[in-house]
Structure formats: structure tokens, C-alpha cells
Amino acid sequence: MLSKRMYQSELTLLAVCLSGCGGASKVGLAGVGGADSGGGGRNVGGNEINLRNNGGSLAAGGGAGNLGGAAGASNAVSDCLSRVSADLLVYLAAAPYSGSAAMTMPIWETTSDKWQAARAAALAWANKDCASFATAARTMGYEAVRLEDATTHRNYWVLRDVSSQYQGVFAFRDPGELTGTRSLVIDSPHFGFDFRDDRAIRLFRDINAVAFLQNTAHRCNLTSCSGCSEVQNYACDGTCMRDSDVVHAIRNGYFAVYDGLEAARDDLHFEYHGASVSNNLPGCVGTAHISQASSMKLTPAEDDGTYPNRFWTAIKKGVGDACACYHQRQTGCRLNGGASTAGRRTNQESRPADANLAVCTASPSALSARFVHMEAYNVAPALLLAALSEAVPTL
What we know:
Elements: H1 8-18, H2 25-33, E1 82-86, H3 88-93, H4 113-126, H5 130-140, E2 142-149, E3 155-161, E4 169-173, E5 182-188, H6 199-207, E6 209-214, H7 253-264, E7 268-274, E8 287-291, H8 300-303, H9 307-319, E9 324-326, H10 341-347, E10 371-377, H11 381-391
Parallel strand pairs: 1-2, 5-6, 5-7, 7-10, 8-9
Antiparallel strand pairs: 2-3, 3-4, 4-6, 8-10
Helix pairs in contact: 1-2, 1-5, 2-4, 4-5, 4-7, 6-11, 7-10, 9-11
């Protein structure tokens, strides 16, 4: 079980504050994760269980397209949530979305009740705490439902915007049904810019991952600057990192949910991006640029057998050796994802010295081997599914 120890005192405080402490939640929860410095600290309640899935020779899990365990018709853990039966792809894709320059995405300060509630929702799911999950959703201005997917008959806890917040759409496998899943989170932070179809949602379903995060505001929705590390040739008119770009900012619900997941669990992450044809390598039909959200180099002894290495090895079988470029082991790769606040948050877990790092503006000193950032041009979803199925074992 890839969970960190969560103490009842914190969960009780969380539930009390989210029931209406009118700002006091910033006292109870920010101290747990240091959120206002741009990323939670390592410990929840002061300690953690160190169950990393970051190396060694893990057995490859299942074949490509394995839809995993079936859902049960009833689960007492989830009884507090309204039940919905629908196609998962359709339901998540129908989440309200706000486009480029629409100026409609509210900024959630990291000390705000809404930001803390989003973080708390992830903590509540990890602790199988349905009541706190539902309470957090209400504070966020979201609905919380237990959705049974009409295709796979699996169940999910879903957070979907009902008050024009545009902070993202979030889905988690029912915590009573995690056997047979993959300890993997699919992160899709640039929907509407990198791609506009359901490929990320479909990957989440078909790989049988435990959680899914996708933005619901275009990365250039706002003109205000996030203050996070800048990147060259930035998408939004080449200007400063925008507050609406959820992985180049921290004052948003997407990052808050991500921070909560990292505080509670040691899942692997796959940050899914699309790249333009200008990033296609010579002689390739399609190209995958892969990194651990960094250009830091690793030796074979440091890297072999880890999740990112296994994924690199597997994706080469689909696109060809010359068409998968891995920043940690090769030169000439592009788009290293080093400014991703999500990638930094995961890598922050590697060393205690980085516990209070401000991930908005600083990079961790080591890599966790739990995060893959992929920028793909014309890589078929079936190839990606096959590679992740090989790289990530089932629970």
C-alpha cells in the first residue's frame, strides 16, 4: 500500500475546519504542508511511512489495455456520496471549461479555504474518509459523486466544478476498489492547448490508474503572473508564467489536490503533454521527449530499473530507439519540464533537506524517480498505453 501515515488528529482538525472555520483552516492545514511556500512539506502529522515505488526491479504489470478489476455494486466506504451511472469519458469531458484570455478563473490563494479544501479532498480520499471528501467539495464549490463507469463498471470518486471555479476536474478510484489498479496518477495540466480530445481521460481509464487531474481553464486564461520560474518561448505570448497555468503556478485547485496526494501517498505520476511538429526528431514518425521534470543527468546505476527508466525502455519499443529522448540519460532532448510545479513537488519528497522548498521558484536537489514528464508529438495513445502497462505494475 503506497500510503503515508495520516493521524486522526489531523483528519479531525481538517473536518472541523472545513465545516466552517471561516479562514481558520489556514492555521490547521497550512502548517501541515507549508502550502504558502509553494508546496507541502514531507510529513503529515509529523511522520510518514517510507514506501517508495522508485526503483529496483519491479515486475511489469499486465498487458496493454488491461482494464483491471471490476467494481462492486455497493461500497460502504462511499455511502455518503450521491451515485451516478454514466460513461466516465463523457462525464469528465463535460466538466465546465474556460478558454484562453477569458479571464474567468479565480485565483485561490494557498491560505484560502478553497485551496485548503482541495488539498483536504485528496487527503480524505487517501484516508477513505467519504464525509470529509464531500465537505471539502462543498467548500471548493464542487460536486462530489460516486460514479459508476458504464463501460468498465468501476467506481470513482469525482470532483466536478458547479460554481464557475475552473480549477480542474478530478477523479479517484473508489478507495474500496484499489486492488488491481496501478499506483499511478495521470496528470493532464494543459488540456485545451496541448490537445482537445479525451486521450488523457481514456488513458486514465484504460491503464486503471488511481487518480486523474485535468485543468479546466486554458493555461492562458488569465493575464496575471504567477511569479513561478519562467521558461523560454512560453506559450502565452512569451510573457510571464500565468496564474491560470496550473503547473507553472501554485495558487490553484489543481496544485492543491496534487499537493494533498503527495502528502498522503507515494504514487507514480505521468504528466501528459502534447508537442508540436517542430519537436519531432529527424526520421521519426512521432517523438517522445521524456524527463523527470529536470535536465539532471543520472548514471545507469542510479537510473536503471526505476519507473522513468522502465517507461523510456518500453516506449522505445513503440516509437523506435531514436525517437524517444530521455533527458536523464541522453543529450539533445527538448522540453525538460523542469519548471513544472507538480514535478518539483514530487521530486521535493526525495530529500528531507528539500522539505520546505518553495517549488514555485526553486528546483529540488534530487529526483524521486516517481515522476515522468512526457512531451509527445504524434505518439499513438495505444503505444503509450502499452508502455505504461509495461512500466507500472498492478497493485
